[in-house]
Each structure stands twice: as structure tokens, then as C-alpha cells.
Specification:
mainly alpha; single chain; 327 residues
Length: 327
């Protein structure tokens, strides 16, 4: 069984690498290697350095946010450990196709460290949910700005914006579930009637994510931190646009719309290049230059990858220490 699972993972990884290679090859063929190099060479390094600094600050504040939620879930770890696990997760988010891999690794580390896997899962879920909820909120804010500027023209973009508003409503629904005792009791009754195994395990995991009355005090600091963190993440894309001279006062609202879309897309474990291609297509629909908008997406990914290398180094260090503890 283990061999079968290992083979499935190898096949899955190989397919993702193949798809990523195909997408990047297609982009190079479509845009032209010389044009891509010319666009990259025109990027202002000062803007890119600022983007790297902003991304690191967002990561540092993200660590503080996650630690607050971990403590609330009963997981007490020193800041250096939380920093290490968070940046390791960030490293795998950037290099292992999607946020699921990085988040799962963070939970696994907490399970190994404190044997509190359920609490770690709940804290990580709430941390991720807070970020996505704020991101969708920023998207709605961007749409409002866009409507005020009467820039809503493309039908396909209109559908995307409607989808975002529906997603925002969905996130509000999840928040209501996390806070409402009546909704929780109703959900547990539904689970009890479902013909599935391990109902108690599922209910226990859900219970870990529920926000009780004594948890309300963390909503304000987590909400403020999440708002700042996600604003900085959007700011990274804005700075990358500035590096390519794409930024104007008349197009900045698009970043508050499209970056949240890309954040939601990152939930799915997609190969490298897919998110950047989708982002390029979205910004192109908004009137951005095709070459520059795709390069802008890759620059934002590179900025995140540069900062998350810290997590790669910490992963190797933690793995070495773990082996020493086991031997």
C-alpha cells in the first residue's frame, strides 16, 4: 500500500512538473524570449527590493497572527518555533504547488512537537480562513472603487466580480457558523445522520475550529493583523507593477480585485506557471500589456520565493535536528 501511495505521489508530481514545463514553454513561445528578457531588464530593482522587504514584513506579522491563534487553541510554542514552522510552510507553498502542502506540513510539525494535531489543524485553518476572508473583502472594496470609476465594461470581468461577491457571502456564512451555537448544533445533528464512518473524529476537528465566547478577544487582533498582512501581500504585486512602470492611479484598484482571485486559486495545488498565466490574463483583460502583466506575475512569485528560501533553510535545519532526536 505504501509503495502504491508513493508511486501515486511520484506520478502526480511528474504530471505537475510536466504541465508547469508545458505552460512556461508555451508562454515563452507565445510572448517571445527576447521580449520577456527585454521586459525583465527594464524592471527597476529598487521597487523589487521594496517588494522583498514588504513580503518579509507580511510574513513576520503572519507569524504573530498564527501564534495568537495557536495559543487560543491551546498550542503554546516559543516564537522561534512558530516562525520556523510558518516559514517552512511558506517555502512549500511556493515550491510545492499550492497552500495545502505548506499548511499540512505546519500541522505535521505541531503534531510532532506537541502531539496536538487537531488543535494545530484548527489554528491553521482559522489563520488561512482569516486571510482569505480579508482578501475577498479587499476584492469587494476594489469592485466598489471600480464601479465608482465606471470602469466595469467586460462581461467576463463582470461575472468574475459577481463570483467574488458570492465568495465573500460564502466566507461570511462560514464566519457565522464559527460564531453561532445554533448553526453548530444543526450541523452536528446533520453529521450524526450522515452514513459515514468516524463521525466523532470529524465533529472533534470541527469543534476545534469553533470560536467560543471566551475566544472573542482574539478576533480584533487577528482581524487587524490579517488586514495588514493581506494588504502587504497585495502591495507586493503593486510594487512589482511599479518596477515595470505599469502602475497608475487609474489601475491600482485592479490589484485589490485580481490578487485576491489569485489567492483563492492558490488553495488548489496547481503547477507553477498556472497562477501567473491566469493573473496575466486577468490583468490583460483590464487593459494591461500582455507581456508585462505575465512578467509581473512571475516577478511577484519570485519575490515570494526569495523570502521563503528562509523556510527552506529552516526545513533542512529542522530535519537534521529531528534525525538527531530520533537517533
Amino acid at each position: 500500500m505504501d509503495k502504491r501511495k508513493s508511486m501515486q505521489k511520484i506520478i502526480s508530481l511528474s504530471l505537475k512538473i510536466l504541465v508547469a514545463t508545458g505552460i512556461i514553454t508555451f508562454i515563452i513561445w507565445k510572448l517571445g524570449w527576447k521580449e520577456i528578457i527585454a521586459t525583465c531588464s527594464n524592471a527597476d530593482p529598487q521597487w523589487l527590493i521594496a517588494a522583498i522587504i514588504v513580503f518579509f514584513i507580511s510574513g513576520w506579522l503572519g507569524v504573530i497572527q498564527w501564534q495568537i491563534i495557536l495559543k487560543n487553541r491551546g498550542v503554546s510554542l516559543p516564537f522561534i518555533k512558530v516562525f520556523s514552522f510558518y516559514f517552512i510552510g511558506m517555502f512549500f507553498n511556493n515550491f510545492a504547488f499550492g497552500i495545502i502542502t505548506g499548511d499540512a506540513l505546519k500541522v505535521a510539525y505541531i503534531k510532532l512537537q506537541n502531539d496536538q494535531g487537531k488543535a494545530g489543524f484548527a489554528a491553521t485553518f482559522l489563520d488561512r480562513f482569516a486571510g482569505l476572508w480579508v482578501m475577498v473583502g479587499y476584492a469587494v472594496f476594489g469592485i466598489i472603487l471600480m464601479i465608482r470609476q465606471k470602469a466595469l465594461e467586460s462581461r467576463s470581468m463582470t461575472l468574475a466580480f459577481v463570483a467574488l461577491i458570492l465568495a465573500f457571502i460564502g466566507f461570511c456564512g462560514i464566519m457565522m457558523f464559527l460564531l453561532s451555537k445554533k448553526l453548530q448544533d444543526f450541523s452536528f445533528n446533520v453529521i450524526d445522520k450522515l452514513p459515514i464512518n468516524k463521525k466523532e473524529i470529524l465533529k472533534n476537528i470541527i469543534k476545534e475550529t469553533i470560536i467560543e465566547s471566551h475566544d472573542i478577544h482574539i478576533l480584533l487582533p487577528v482581524g487587524i493583523l490579517s488586514t495588514i498582512v493581506q494588504f502587504l501581500r497585495i502591495g507586493v504585486h503593486i510594487l512589482c507593477a511599479g518596477a515595470l512602470s505599469l502602475l497608475t492611479p487609474f489601475n491600482i484598484h485592479y490589484f485589490f480585485i485580481f490578487v485576491p482571485v489569485l489567492a483563492v486559486i492558490m488553495i488548489v495545488p496547481l503547477p507553477f506557471g498556472v497562477r501567473e498565466s491566469i493573473g496575466g490574463a486577468l490583468f490583460t483583460m483590464a487593459g494591461f500589456n500582455l507581456h508585462a502583466s505575465i512578467v509581473m506575475g512571475f516577478l511577484a512569485t519570485i519575490v515570494g520565493s526569495v523570502v521563503s528560501i528562509i523556510g527552506g533553510i529552516l526545513f533542512i535545519f529542522n530535519r537534521f535536528n529531528l534525525k538527531k532526536e530520533l537517533t
